[in-house]
Amino acid sequence: MSRRAHNQDKVEALVGAARAGDLEAFEGLVAHYQDRVYNYVLRMIYDPLEAQDVAQETFVRAWQGLPRFRGASSFQTWLYRIASNLAIDAARTRKRRGLATVSLDERVEGVDATELEHDLPDESRYGPAEALEQQELRQYVWEAIGELSDKLRPVIVLTDLQGLSYREVAKILGCPVGTVKSRLFNARGQLRDKLKERLPLEILSVWSAPAGSATLGATGVGGNRS
Fold it and tell me: In the chain, what is the straight-line distance between the N-terminal and C-terminal CA atoms, in Å?
């Protein structure tokens, strides 16, 4: 059995027990998903403290809603849907209050970058000057993503940064797969326009490709699509 299949079986067992009221099983689900949920919310609202609050509220609502969870979608999809709705609401509230975004250079302690976050190329390959340049490029990307609309930002974060499939993103956001691809194409186009004076050609060329034909994986970013 593959590691992924083993993890899925473990999650399903925890979900079944948690639905029956087993708090310890639910705590196991929190431990399994808390970093990736926090990471997603952080990329949506750009405030570490508020992201912690939103992530915590996500799990509170998940616990409260578990008796109504029927498994029509995966637990991960259902959990991301809760997180996405809360994060979008929080982002809109921040915009109305005129709150600025913050630096996202610091990684979440304990987060597995291969599963959760796919940044620009690894800085460890570079000397000090080049590493600083890569850090600056990453910050430009995060700032540009933060300027995307509430419809476009979740799509590019979930697909190009967290590596979810088009179908799963469609279920999370409650829209057709075609809409996900269209929004991703528009999001990449806007990022390309915002960053064309700052990013290397190899990254911009990925964002020039139609949705489904390439991802940020070409630059050390991205995940599987289906």
Answer: 22
189-198, long-range: CB < 8 A, 24+ apart:
190/144, 190/148, 190/152, 191/141, 191/144, 191/145, 191/148, 191/156, 194/144, 194/147, 195/140, 195/141, 195/144, 198/137, 198/140
The CATH code belonging to domain 34-97+110-219 is 1.10.10.10
pTM for the complete prediction?
0.76
**Dihedral in degrees, nearest 10, Cα atoms 76, 37, 44, 204:** -70
pLDDT in tens, 164-195: 999 999 999 999 999 999 999 999 899 888 88
Q: What angle do CA 153, 187, 43 make, to 5 degrees?
A: 25
